[in-house]
Write a structure and sequence with these properties.
homotrimer; 200 residues; globular; membrane (chains A, B, C); transmembrane helix (chains A, B, C)
């Protein structure tokens, strides 16, 4: 189940990356790299920072295949994405939840402090998109009033709060991902956003 | 003492990052990440490149706390920074000296060549700012005629020169940081800058 | 022989980086860093991702010296590069071939899957240029219709195909680099390029 959600999330991230790259009129190689980086960039950054090398996607070809399929689908259906927007948004939100949990888990496995684990979860879920935006020379969208990373941080906090009550692992994962997914859906539905800060 | 200077430098770097991010009208999450990256980005890059993982700030929560305080102060006093500019500049200069020394030391500890140690010192002190500028989609300011990195290189050269005379560690550190700090102050006071190179 | 080609490629990459930086009117420090990053950035990224640390150029000062010479030559001859363009292009193409092979080899040495090895070869040869462009706040040129990375992927595929026939190592290396170099020369001569993908 978790494996399946990981695949769905990876594919959604790859497709969103491919779409951004096509908006920038890149060639197929550029589109593929942006798709790849959006999908696995956050986890790669996490693995590098905690010293888990070779990084994850080099040891499990599943990711290369899933991203290649996502890339191909994005190209084939590139004129029809307006109609697919809702599905893609749902899949992307699943990715947000799953990737946060994977990041949290990697941190816990090597005994890092909960605050750092939450940082790793947020990095896993959000920093593929940051690298995507930088490679497209845009200021990362999650730094500008979209509530996105904040939801991962909230999810991580809920996770460690529930962990104190000795919930079993499965329930813990389920509740945390449901919190992340539902807050994200609400944030978009009710147009919650963070204010920008200005110093002028 | 050194610990205290490290904290002062980290906070100054975090505040300067937060101010840059607010100039770009980011939201609080973006401002926090830019503050964080400006403060620990150089050291993180260094740790990753020499294989010192998990990277430093993941093992010592002090940095997270100091950056959070710097971030909060930058937001609270964001309208009053013109008056605080001189103090912030001083603290930033202290950071430049301390971070260079920390980078030098990490390289020496694992037996790298002095030239590489100087590169690590410069990276520690200056590349947080490079990552900050890239995340704000600006060409890094230290690549454009501000004398900044050059001072770290000079400081590193002085360090290894004095080391040949078997100076004791404390004196070595003190003199190197004084050289970096005073040259930086003079560079700003007397408006020293590097010429730009053009090929047209 | 291979050593010599590695040096030629490194110098060519450093010079192309220096020229790009001078187009952006950077100061000497900025020009040096861009030269450095263009030359060793791809290999550094590869080493970090596979956990080969301290990264290559920190353990072999040859690269620092070669890049410094390339940097100095680029500055001295900066007004005369139009006449040198053909030689520089040839050297750059040698670098493309050699760096791809070095990347492939590092992946094979630690037992990674051929697909991942090809990714490492391409990363080694092409991602120094990606980092160069990002530091200059440009969308990476290899993501926009220049056939460049695609040739490395092709070269890697040829390499593993020939390897199946139990060719000896020397012949394998020679043929692969000749394929990369000649396809690159033809791509430029006959103006082969990848189409851009648009979703509008």
């Amino acid at each position: 189940m978790f494996q399946l959600l990981d695949i769905i999330g990876t594919m959604a991230f790859a497709m969103s990356g491919a779409l951004t790259a096509m908006n920038k009129k890149m060639d197929p190689f550029g589109v593929f790299i942006i798709a790849f980086v959006t999908a696995v960039g956050g986890g790669t950054l996490r693995d590098i920072m905690i010293g888990r090398t070779p990084v994850g996607w080099m040891l499990d070809l599943k990711y290369v295949y899933v991203i290649t399929i996502g890339f191909a689908l994005a190209i084939i259906f590139r004129k029809k994405f307006d109609r697919l927007r809702t599905s893609l948004f749902l899949f992307d939100t699943i990715g947000l939840g799953v990737f946060t949990l994977i990041g949290l888990e990697k941190g816990i496995n090597i005994g890092l402090h909960p605050i750092i684990c939450i940082a790793l979860g947020t990095m896993t879920a959000c920093f593929g998109g940051v690298i995507r935006d930088i490679l497209c020379t845009e200021i990362p969208v999650i730094f500008r009033n979209e509530i996105y990373a904040t939801i991962c941080i909230l999810g991580g906090a809920v996770f460690f709060l529930l962990k104190k009550f000795n919930l079993e692992s499965d329930a813990l994962y389920l509740i945390t991902s449901l919190v992340i997914i539902s807050v994200r859906l609400m944030a978009v539905k009710f147009k919650w956003y963070l204010p920008t800060l200005e110093n002028k």
